Amino acid sequence: MSPRLLPLALMLAGCNGSLLTIDVPFESTTTVEQGSIIENLAGGLGFGDFLNMDITDSQELRNQGVSPGDIQDVRLTEFELEAVAPQGADLSFLDALDIYVEAPGLDEVRVATAPGFPEGEALVVMTIEEVDLTEYAVSESMTITTDVSGHRPDVDTDVKARILLEVGVTAQGARNQANAR
Fold first, then answer.
1. Which of 46, 55, 67, 75 is nearest to 168 (CA)?
2. pLDDT of residue 151
């Protein structure tokens, strides 16, 4: 083995083959339409931008020279919901929310949950489930869906969802990244 390659080999051995971790953010906004006090909110919230996500085509991974075969590990590390309009809006119209991931040929799996939404709180950080999303991320498409219960808000409310995925890439992905520089 070349003496120049020894540090790289030692680093790879100490990292279980995962040399580089890349944060991949996604964001989507939806409007929850107002309703009467007795009108329930059930089903999904409708974050259209999260439908058919292609993580392997994200700018963050392309910038690093990573291809789908380089992806070794994908984890959801953050999921936030925020009422962004109108001014002073909160999420108290929601009672409970579960976030799921699905992909062709794979079972739907819950990745985040929030059992309650306090009055006056515009931002809620979801509780993240420990789920390996690698197979979902490298599939032809990964879809994030919601299962929500509650009632419709008194006024149309814009809700922004922000997620952060942590993507671990193999040594080949790291080499691609190094060669791209």
1. 75
2. 85
Among 75, 92, 177, residue whose Cα is nearest residue 130: 75
Give the distance, in angstroms, between the CA of residue 4 and the centroid of all CA atoms in the same chain. 38
In a domain, 49, yes or no: yes
Structure tokens at 80: 């936030």
At 181, is the secondary structure helix, strand, or coil? Answer: coil
C-alpha span between 179 and 56 (Å, rounded):
19
Q: How far apart are CA 26 and CA 160, in angstroms?
A: 11
Share of the chain above pLDDT 70, in %: 72
DSSP 62-89: HHTT--GGGEEEEEEEEEEEEEEESTT-
Instruction: Look at the chain and report how many structural domains it folds into.
Output: 1
Residue 1, domain member (yes or no): no
Range of the domain at 132: 20-180
Which pLDDT tens digit goes with each residue over 104-143? 999 999 999 998 899 999 999 999 999 999 999 888 888 8
Domain at 71, CATH number: 2.60.120
Whether 29 is in a domain gets the answer yes
Is the CB of residue 76 less than 8 Å from the CB of residue 113? no
Q: Global pTM?
A: 0.77
Tens digit of each residue's pLDDT (9 = 90 or more) over 30-77 = 888 888 666 666 555 655 445 556 666 777 777 777 888 888 999 999
Residue 12, domain member (yes or no): no
